[in-house]
Design goal:
Chain A is of the alpha/beta class. Chain A has 16 helices and 14 strands. In chain A, 53% of the residues are buried. Chain B is an alpha+beta fold. Chain B is built from 14 helices and twelve strands. In chain B, strands 1, 2, 3, 4, 5, 8, 9, 10, 11 and 12 form a ten-stranded mixed beta sheet that branches. In chain B, strands 6-7 form a two-stranded antiparallel sheet. The longest helix of chain B is centred in the middle third of the chain and has 20 residues. The radius of gyration of chain B is 22 Å and the shape is globular. Classes of the chains: A alpha/beta, B alpha+beta. At the A-B interface, α4 and β3 of A face α6 and α12 of B.
């Protein structure tokens, strides 16, 4: 999975050439190492007057012990002081040489388009001072939760700002919008931590909606999934294997699932992480029952289900036979629906604070020539997630999707160089993601304190130019 | 000790000489010359010839070792009765105000009825010491018992040992000058060049008006041809100050010779006493010296700025007096550097500083800037270190007296991470 171009432009000569030719210059992204601090650098925080999330932001930064700065006249200093953060001061009129690893702005106080200027005021003088692999995070309100049309308008406008800023920030920096519903401020923590940390390396230009959720016991930051049982389908290779490893690293007991033909590969994944294996073909009629029986029998239930198993059978629609269509829909979508149905039919099998995370795809959002079957299945996954979210919430559980973009796997390594290079470079980070980037995003959605996230589809695509 | 209730302490008079820039009008003068002249002026103005006062307390920051009894020597030439006791103190730029606190406390306790607090400094007639190595050799030579020993000691003399030790305006523990320390504070608090220059221009303009309107006439006695403070530039403007190059904080620093106090020479004294003592001597109280507080901060190991101690001292004083920061009609904040004043004001407005460093639930808040240093400050007048306390106490006492009532706050930062603050009322 070597990215020769990245290696080339990251040496002095290649860098010089790329710079002068205006070629993309991908940088090596910061990625999470167990035991590392939440974020490796200072954080500049700010809030539009009347913001709701200052305390929640301050709580995250205080717990992490991250050095924080703000403007002297920023309301957020009240919250920083209350959280016992001895925050430094930054004045853009006497800027000095200050740089930040993250810029976090609480925009929930913006009530109208005229006040969108607060965004400009905060980010304009600071955006060039963002360090490599930096984080630009805007916190807003879900427009649907705003009673006043003017407020809904302004809050919806934040999306355009974040998506553009994501395309402007350089050296591996990312930009996100976290929409926090009124009353859900206390649920911001898990998402803010994820997007501040290197765990979110390849996620950019995303909007995460954070809703009411429910109270959960305190989470061990080093082992957030401690005591959890996680089923991962398609776990034997590629992204699935990375998911199994990351969930196990975060403390979960991983139950890997794959087809009989890959049983040996599956064993090689679960054995080192102390996991278990279920060998099954998820398209078989009795598969949901077999899987749920095994979970019930061996583990007494399940906390996390990751629907990762998927296949491609690419052909343009005109040339596609029915078999290719059927297989892709059956594996990528129908099997997930049937397993979910069985899971929810059995009382208590999906335990309290259960998490279902489905792997969709950028194709499911943007479409892709030759992938009518695949894109149909993956768009269906997003539909399923949205449709099932209320039912899951009623069971104190959540369901969300991740949609990977160009991820460096054996599959992409086998692509012809033209489409492969296009896929790698046509995103804000000018590089492909790694399987671990998808896995980290799933681990975030699967964490017990991600209780406010339900019905989201988060792309792991480096803010691909393709798709919304 | 058994005391009655504390007695009220009045500021009944003040006198100072115009402050001169270093190596100019007072270049040939010693601390003793300037302080003696200042005390004589105070004595003459208040008809205290031959009087025995409770005590005279004061000092100098830059002091020759021969001046170990400086204040007492000056008292002996002041016209006061030789029976007036005196002692030297030193608390860097807080010396003058700390002296006033000492005298005021003794008056309040009933130990004395009257006293003078004073301070003097010269940066022109600075003490130059012999090199430490040379000093060690000379001391050994003095202790040697035989000629052989003496020769052996002298043989250790080297040319380099003849280089003298010149006093530096630097913190011994950090090696940084006060200006460099303040530049760090200015950066930490995001203080702009413009804000500093505005404060400096206002200081000059206010002091210029004070002289023009005769406010200083009974506070400042002309001396050796100087009638006004030599550093004063009443025509100072933000535009003119903006042309100066930064002197501290590197090339993009915000601190210039215009918004930092210059090295200067001068002396100041204030007369304190009970109201009864004043009446007996035909002197009217200008204001009452109500209370004072001194604080220090850890600027070496901790992360606090060198000159931030007043920001800690004032809230403690306010709490003891049951006052808010806004309960004052006048604020006299010593302008060591414009940035020091602005950092202090910013700190009091900052919820984080007030919570984290001061342990308070709410910020102290802002002050009405129209009440700050209304008759100018150290940026315009100059700052002979130990003389500044006397200048400010005299200045505020007169302002309160003219108003016929009110309350004023004094805040003075000092080297070593210290701050001395006080409240005067009429």
């Amino acid at each position: 999975m070597s990215d020769t171009y990245s290696q080339l432009v990251n040496n002095p000569v290649g860098g010089f050439v790329a710079k002068n030719l205006g070629l993309p210059r991908p940088v090596e992204l910061d990625r999470y190492e167990p035991g590392a601090p939440l974020i490796d650098g200072r954080v500049l925080v700010g809030a539009a007057p009347g913001g709701r999330c200052g305390e929640a932001v301050a709580a995250v930064l205080a717990e992490a012990g991250t050095p924080v700065d703000s403007r002297l006249d920023d309301e957020v200093r009240e919250a920083l002081g209350t959280a016992s953060i001895d925050a430094g001061i930054w004045n853009d009129e006497a800027p000095g040489a200050q740089r930040w690893k993250a810029l976090v702005f609480d925009a929930t106080g913006i009530p109208s388009s005229a006040r969108l200027r607060e965004l400009w005021s905060f980010f304009h003088p600071a955006i060039r001072r963002l360090e490599p692999s930096g984080r630009l995070i805007v916190i807003g309100s879900p427009p649907g939760d705003c009673d006043d049309p003017a407020e809904a308008t302004a809050q919806r406008a934040l999306e355009g700002f974040v998506r553009s800023a994501g395309k402007e920030v350089r050296y591996g920096a990312t930009a996100q919008l976290l929409q926090v519903a009124p009353g859900a401020e206390g649920r911001l923590g898990s998402s803010l931590r994820f997007f501040l940390s290197p765990r979110s390396a390849y996620v950019s230009g995303q909007v995460a909606r954070i809703g009411a959720g429910r109270d959960v016991p305190a989470v061990d930051r080093d082992l957030p999934l401690h005591g959890k049982v996680a089923l991962v389908t398609g776990a034997s290779r590629g992204i699935g294997s990375a998911i199994a490893n990351v969930l196990a690293r975060d403390g979960a007991h991983v139950v890997g699932l794959d087809v009989p033909a890959l049983a040996d590969d599956l064993e090689r994944v679960v054995e080192p992480i102390g996991g278990s294996a279920i060998v099954a073909d998820i398209t078989a009629a009795d598969a949901p029952e077999t899987i749920c029986d095994a979970l019930e029998r061996e583990h007494g239930g399940v906390d996390i289900v990751v629907h990762n198993a998927g296949v491609t059978r690419d052909k343009t629609l005109a040339g596609m036979d029915a078999e290719r269509w059927e297989l892709v829909i059956a594996i990528n979508l129908s099997a997930e629906e049937r397993i979910n149905a069985e899971l929810l039919a059995r009382d208590g099998l999906l335990r309290e604070d259960g998490r279902i995370v489905c792997v969709s795809s950028m194709s499911g959002i943007a479409g892709n020539a030759g992938q009518t079957n695949y894109a149909t299945s993956k768009a269906g996954v997003i539909g399923m997630v949205e449709a099932m979210a209320p039912a899951l919430a009623a069971r104190a559980a959540t369901i969300n999707a991740v949609a990977p973009g160009f991820i460096e796997t054996q599959m992409t390594a086998a692509m012809p160089i033209g489409p492969r290079e296009a896929g790698r470079r046509m995103n804000s980070l000018s590089q492909g993601g790694l399987p671990v980037d998808v896995a980290e995003t799933i681990a975030w959605l699967a964490a017990p304190d991600s209780t406010g996230l339900n019905g989201n589809a988060i792309r792991v695509c480096g803010q691909s130019l393709i798709g919304a | 000790m058994n005391y009655g209730p504390p007695r009220k302490v009045a500021v009944v008079g003040a006198n100072r000489i115009p402050f001169a820039r270093s190596n100019t009008a007072y270049a040939q003068l010693s601390n003793q010359d300037m302080l003696t002249a200042t005390l004589r002026g105070l004595v003459a103005k208040h008809k205290l010839e031959g009087e025995t006062l409770g005590e005279v307390a004061g000092g100098a920051v830059m002091k020759h070792s021969r001046d170990w009894n400086l204040v007492r020597e000056c008292v002996l030439s002041s016209g006061l009765s030789p029976a007036t006791p005196a002692y030297d103190i030193q608390q860097a730029c807080g010396t003058g105000l700390e002296a006033a606190i000492l005298v005021a406390n003794k008056i309040a306790l009933g130990q004395v009825d009257s006293g003078i607090a004073c301070g003097v400094d010269t940066t022109s007639d600075a003490p130059i010491a012999v090199n430490e190595d040379l000093r060690a050799i000379l001391l050994e030579l003095n202790a040697a018992r035989s000629n052989v020993d003496r020769l052996r000691t002298l043989a250790r003399l080297r040319p380099g040992q003849l280089v003298p030790e010149i006093p530096r305006n630097a913190e011994p523990r950090t090696g940084l000058s006060m200006g460099e320390h303040t530049a760090i504070m200015a950066r930490e608090w995001g203080i702009t060049r413009l804000a500093q220059d505005e404060l400096a221009a206002a200081s000059h303009q206010h002091l210029g008006v004070a002289y023009d309107e005769g406010f200083e006439a009974d506070l400042v006695s002309p001396y050796l041809g100087l009638e006004r403070d030599q550093n004063l530039r009443p025509e100072s403007t933000v535009e003119k100050l903006a042309k100066l190059k930064p002197v501290f904080g590197g090339e993009d620093g915000t601190m210039t010779a215009g918004n930092s106090t210059p090295l200067s020479d001068g002396a100041a004294a204030v007369l304190l006493g009970t109201e009864e003592w004043g009446e007996r001597h035909g002197l009217t109280a200008l204001a009452r010296f109500v209370d004072a507080e001194t604080a220090a901060v850890d600027y070496v190991g901790g992360r606090e700025g060198l000159l931030m101690a007043p920001a800690y001292a004032v809230p403690r004083l306010l709490d003891r007096q049951g006052l808010k920061l806004q309960d004052f009609d006048l604020y006299e904040i010593h302008e060591a550097f414009a940035a020091q004043v602005l950092c202090t004001l910013a700190a009091w407005e900052d919820p984080v500083f007030c919570k984290e460093r001061l342990g308070r639930d709410a910020p102290l808040g802002s002050i009405d800037r129209d009440k700050l240093n209304v008759r100018g400050g150290s940026l315009a007048a100059g700052h002979p270190f130990a003389a500044t306390g006397g200048r400010i106490v005299g200045n505020l006492a007169k302002l309160l007296s003219e108003r016929g009532g009110g309350r004023g706050l004094i805040s003075i930062c000092a080297a070593g991470g210290q701050g001395v603050v006080a409240i005067l009322e009429k």
